[in-house]
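Weekly modeling sync, notes
Attendees: S.R. (lead), two postdocs, one rotation student

Agenda item 3: backlog of single-chain predictions. S.R. asked that every request posted to the team notebook include the full sequence so nobody has to chase files. The rotation student volunteered to paste the first one in as an example of the format we agreed on. Action items at the bottom.

Example entry:
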Amino acid sequence: MLPHKRAYDSSHHKVLRIERRDGPFPGDMDYLEFLNKFVDPDKLKTAFEQAAEIAVLVYEDVLSIHNQRTTRAIWTRQALYCGLAEGVGQIVRAHHAKQIGWDLLEHYELLEYSFEHIITKFQEEFVHLDDFELLLSASMAKLKHAP
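Predicted structure, as returned to the notebook:
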């Protein structure tokens, strides 16, 4: 599990603190509660949009721990910019020799924040993609083989 227990531990909370905008995000707030409020403070986003954005935040926190410095997932954010479903599909399709994100999420037992999990959970958001069946089966297979 991720060692983060409260908002203060997140690299995203540290950015807010530097800018002196703690506001509705006290440092002792639960980590996942913080991420949910950070992503959708007005509760206007769909569950799919929230899940995808929280997945990116968790991934960035895991990368920050791994790199021992604040790290942002620029490529991932750029892929999601033109559309969440298309971006998630593009990221899952990209079979890199170094699957750092998957390996780190697996190491910290956070695969429920992987894009593969999001594809299986929100299938209706991806059915319009030409390779939906392939994405779904690949995601299910990858999650099935995870410990």
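Discussion: group reviewed the output briefly. The chain is about 55% helix and 0% strand.
Action items: rotation student to repeat for the remaining queue; S.R. to check formatting next week.
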